[in-house]
Amino acid sequence: PEGAPAPVFENADEEWQAGEPLLARVRPVRPAERATHVHGRSYAILDHTRASEDERHDTFGRVGGGLVLENPFGRGDRLHADAEWNYRHVDVPDADDEEDVELRLERLSYATGGSRFEHEGLEVGRFLQQGMAEFGVLDGAEWVFRLPSGHRYGASIGLLPELDQEFQTGSDLQVAAFYRWVADQSEELSASAGYQKTFHNGAADRDLVVANVSRMPRAGWTLFGTAWLDFYTDGDDEKGTLAGLTQAYVSTGRRWQSGSTFDVVYSHMEFPEIERNEFLPVDDAQLADDHSERLGLTSRLQLARDLRMLTGVGGWIDEDEGGGDAEFGFELRDFLVERGFADMQGFVTRGRFQTSAGGRLSTGLFTANGRWAFDYEFSQNRLDGFSSANDDLPQHRVRFSRDHAWTNWDLSWRLEGLVYDDEHALTVGLYLQRSHY
User: Fold this and answer.
1) Is 169 within 8 Å of 160 (Cβ atoms)?
2) Which pLDDT belongs to residue 319?
3) Which of 34, 251, 369, 424 has the most other CB atoms within 10 Å of its CB?
4) Are 101 and 134 in contact (CB under 8 A)?
């Protein structure tokens, strides 16, 4: 109240100096000093599709969750567990139905160290590798060391689960090492490289080098690039070279404080010659020749506070021929009402056997606990090589969705319809998640 004496604070923070961070003189709590804490999430996903063509039915369900136990043994350590149960049923008249049930253990690991107080970290069990995520999920151990400068290096050894619905393990052994360089503590500019050697059923298999570079300031020019280089031996007859560029992705562009952006993206992919069951079976000709190259340009121009223009153009080539695509549209915020939105795009694509042109509209409203959305897309598809009776295929997609969020629950549901030629399909989707603290 007016006239009352000013409050007197017992802690005057006399050691704090102007210009320092607010908590510069506060001693942080070490991980080992924190109480044991459990947190995680659980979720359920259900999609059901019914199509008029032969009265097809497709049901896909997923139930899973993840759990993290922090500081269980008073060493600043962590226990991680993630698992998922999948159910799939496809009902096709006049053919054998398909039904499959799988339980996947996504992660089960124990980790210690690796914080700003402990530069050395170790993780054992099943987990996605931290040093080079490109090397995949590992059943084994990874050691990582962080230097005071922020540079990191490490190594890992263990088995690689197969990339299928069962995540089976035991056929592929890997050893790997990596090094990551950073320009300063902000890590806006960084570069890393790693080497992975694999053995399939005890025989030497893949020699892979992965290199990355990244520059990600808040504004200005950005750059991200990654390259996967496979080295081959005399036994890899289809490649016939010492090394091959299996994957490459380069993205560079500009960010402005106004919100406008411009990006150029290039990608390259081809099959590596390996024994590990990582892809569907491919023949010798595909190993030797199949590849895909794409170059795309996208921009987002902030015309006003609530209006943004989008443009995009791209082209691709593969072992047979090429194609392209283009897109143009607008994003509007506070459309008609406060917190309303509307996105409108027109597009055209040209492929080897099909040319498509159309447009899409998304509109809705952000609410205090989620959003409503309505989406509509129309495309006219011209199919090459068919008779005049079925070479034009118009397609309509309509979707109505709702996202809810309250306390530690999230719920999303959608109703989606598809009309194409004389057929139609209806999909109902549900996603429910609960966070545990």
Assistant:
1) yes
2) 86
3) 251
4) no
